[in-house]
Design a protein that fits this description.
The protein is an alpha+beta fold and 223 residues long. It is built from 6 helices and 8 strands, in the order ααββαααββββββα. Helix 1 (3-25) packs across helix 2 and helix 5 (117-131) runs parallel beside helix 6 (209-222). The radius of gyration is 20 Å and the shape is globular.
Amino acid sequence: MTEKLYTVELQKKMDRDKWLDSENAGKDLCGSYAYCAYCNKSEDAPCANAYVRMIEAEKAEDERAAVRAADEAVGEAVGDDEGLTALGKSIDLEDVKRRKAARKSLSFAEKYALSDEIVKERYAVLKEALTATPKGTPKIKSRISRQCDTYRRNGDIVAKITIIGGSLRINLPLDPDAPEFNDGKMPHTATGHKKVYAEVPFQFKVNSKLALKRALRLIELVK
């Protein structure tokens, strides 16, 4: 499929979904979607082009976050100490920096230690949302492994949180192909083909305030 044909087909789908959404809401929802901030109504396929621009902007933000994570002075939070504790794990900061510079694999705790305060704050909000359960209901417990932070309830995986390229991501047991997640409001990645994500194939990047709000809605849906 050519890029032009893809844009035309995407516009048709988005027009159809927008019409159905508006009918259900009883009002015109044009201008209320996340991608609307990138809209140019003079274009032939304004919604499709706006959605593509939104995805490109989010990718660019991921790249900037990765650069910040690599360049910012991580020692600011821990002074000049060579070691610290992150997420209950003992971290040799200088060794982590050397391995990162050499493009060596880092653990989740090590990536967290190198993350900026925004990523840490968003992670804390996600963790609180996942583990907060009403009295009398099964608890959701967190277990940090080398690769990620996994949340389980009665043995079933509720979520996995990872940090990739400086970007915070959450995987949930939702269907990436479900229509309700493919209307342009919830950009995500299908990762079920990877064994580690087989039970939580819906991956969502939490790289902005808006994305954090959406992630919290997804968590409530899962819970």
